[in-house]
Specification:
Blueprint: H1 20-48, H2 52-63, E1 68-70, H3 71-77, H4 82-94, E2 98-103, E3 106-114, H5 116-136, H6 143-162
Antiparallel strand pairs: 1-3, 2-3
Length: 168
């Protein structure tokens, strides 16, 4: 990995370069995750005309109490910037799948609410998504590999969630 000029680095600490095995694993992981997400996005676009990012918003809202969530929380759950999420929600509003409501106790806050039409769109998209995840990921792995993937993903996710945005 080539260090970024914007990455603060303690000059007293030596750089821990990746060895050949780590470099191969990193590049394979990076390529596989990009290819998988691109494929799932293409399939959702072809099947129901929505990008994977919009599908993720609909899923998160469908799982929230009352199918509603503060916009800031929704952005965090979707791992999106506030502005990108706002733009996506605006497109979903145009389709009648989501509506925004003000928060009575906080005039600056807004809540995204999944509409019945949005839930129906999610129901149409879900079989396409789950079939793609199954076909392109889980059908390629043994049960042991699925367990390892889950364990590895939890370790990485827990580490990154513990101190988001901080150098570790």
């Amino acid at each position: 990995m080539v260090p970024s000029p914007s990455t603060p680095r303690d000059p007293a600490r030596p750089v821990r370069w990746l060895d050949d095995d780590e470099q191969c694993a990193w590049r394979a992981f990076l390529a596989a995750t990009h290819l998988l997400m691109d494929q799932l996005d293409r399939e959702l676009q072809a099947g129901v005309g929505i990008p994977h990012a919009y599908y993720e918003i609909l899923v998160r809202l469908s799982e929230a109490p009352g199918r509603a969530m503060r916009m800031s929380d929704l952005a965090d759950r979707c791992q999106s910037s506030r502005s990108r999420l706002s733009h996506a929600v605006a497109r979903l509003e145009e389709r009648g799948w989501v509506r925004r409501e003000t928060v009575p106790s906080d005039r600056r806050g807004a809540v995204a609410v999944l509409t019945e039409a949005g839930f129906a769109a999610l129901e149409a998209a879900a079989p396409i998504h789950v079939e793609g995840v199954r076909r392109h990921l889980f059908d390629r792995l043994t049960p042991e590999q699925v367990a390892a993937l889950g364990q590895i993903s939890r370790v990485i996710g827990d580490h990154l969630a513990a101190a988001p945005g901080e150098p570790v």
